[in-house]
Structure formats: structure tokens, C-alpha cells
Amino acid sequence: MALLELTDEQLVIQIGLGKMQALAQLVKRHQQQALSLAFRSLHDWHMAEDVVQEAFLRVNRAAPKYRPDAKFSTWFYRIVVNLCMDELRKHQRRAKMSTEANVKVSPAMDSPLHQQEVVELQQAVHHALNQLNDRERMAVILHRFEGQSHSQIADITEASTSAVESLLVRAYRKLRQELASFSDIPLEKSQAIKRPDV
Amino acid sequence: MEHLSENQLLDVLKRQDSKGNVLKDHISGCVSCKQRLVELQETWDVLGHWTVEMPDIDLTDRVLKKARPVRTVRLWQTQTLMRIAASILIGIGLGTLLGQPMPNSVSENQVAQAMYLDALALDSATGWTAPLLSGPEEP
User: Fold this and answer.
1) Across the interface, which of A36, A57, A189 has its CB nearest the CB of B63?
2) Of A95, A141, A165, B5, which is least packed with CB atoms within 10 Å of its CB?
């Protein structure tokens, strides 16, 4: 059976048998989402790349003992989240992102917002997220940006669903206070944070 | 119906409410919950401004370069390893036993005493071997 047709769980079993092409296939499938999660947590593309690379290496090492009891994506997200949390603790980074280095705004001709306003808005979002503690911020990132449900976040973070719900309620309250002055700005989809050119 | 919890409002926002229209019906008839949902929606939308343009990178080569194929140890390999280890241990044990040097200070007499052979000696009290060992008597 071609690797493309295999499920994630079947690919991990193949990795456990020493088939490196299965690992390559798994990387191709999940790297973008993992990078997005890691970048939102760490605010640094290079750190995000290192974290995601290490996550895949851990999958490779753990593959022979892998039991497909849980979904691969949950397990993999858990590895990425734990690595991000470790990294945050290690560097004592409270998501101090260097906006100048990481934020590039793509000017949209049809946008009602001026470029400067967009930068300010994104900085405000970053600032608001930085007011949260690491666990709250991770819960919001998984919930708002990665589309995970409460129970999925609980599985990924190895917490109870009620604990996750409390975290989210607390976090969204703080965010609402922080972002109150920006709430009447219409959402545009054309502005994005780009990876800086290396 | 009681007012909705914030988690229920979040579910409505993400359209993950398992109760379907029940929550929406409540919201449409409840000014308080409607207001709370609007506020939450505003925060939700503002957060949506933080979009990330994914970099054009592929980690596949990097990962494969650092990853080593995992070798699974099969049962027969384990058994073979166990046999080799057992053989080595037995060899070491036997070698230790056989390699012990004899003490030099033990004399032949002490050995003979230990085996009660001294009783057969010529100068022993019994002297049992004397007739055999001594030559024929001369007339």
C-alpha cells in the first residue's frame, strides 16, 4: 500500500519498522500545523522550527513502542505543546516577541485599515496574549487558532476538561479587557505575520 | 432556562454546541446572554487579526538527516543475546574456580595426614607396611 494512503497511525507503525519514508510522509502532513502552533507559542520562527524538528525526532524514537490507542494528532500535538512549554520555561520568555523582526504587514489595497493601524492591532493582540500565563495562552492558541475543542485541548495538555474550561473562561475575560478598545475594528484577512527573510 | 455559561457561549461561537438550536433559541430570547455573546464575539474577531503566513520551508530533509532508522529488537535476537550473556557468565565462573592456585605451603606430609596415609608410613606407630617395604630377613 502506498504511503499516501496510510493513516497517521499506520505511518508511525511503519516508522517503528525502520521505514524512513514513512517519517518523511508524516513530516509533510503535519509540519505546517505544528509550525503554526509553535510559532504562536514562541513568537520566533527559528525556535518554532527547532521545536517541530525535535517533535518529529521524538516520534521517530518512540515509534517502536507506539500503541495506536489515541489519535496520532493528539499525541503529536502533546509533544509539540510540551516542547514549547519547556522552551518558554527555559528562556523565561513571556512571549516577548520582537515585532520589528517578525511582523510584516502585507498592505491590502481594499483594506479600510491603514498599515500602521494593522501593526498596532497586531501588537495589541500580542500584548494581550502576553498578559496571560503560559497555560492560559496555550489553551487560547489551541482553541482560537488551532480549532481544538475543549476535550481535545484537555487530551493534549493532559488536564481535565473542566480545568481547560476554567482556563479558557479566565483567559477570554482577560483578553476582552485588554482588547476592549479594538473590538469595533472589522476583521480583515489580508494581514499576516510573515517569517522574516533569513 | 438559566443563563448560558461562558463555555456554552464559546461553543456557540465555534458552532460546537451539542445542544444545537436550544442554546441559540435561548440567546435570541435573553438580552443578557445575547450581550455577553456579542462581547465574546468581538474579542474572538479581534484575535482573528493575528494571522500567520506560513513560511515556505520544508523540514523533511532536516528531520531525516537527524533521524536514525529505529531498529526493533526481535524475539530471536533477544534470545540469542541472552544465550551469549549466559555463556560468558558460565565461562567466567568456571575460569575463576579452575584458576585458583594451590597453596605452596602445604607439604606432602600434611597432605598425607589429611588423607590418613601417614598410618602406613614406616615410622608410624602401626607400621603396617613395614613387612612389605623391608627386604627379606637375612639368615
Assistant:
1) A57
2) B5
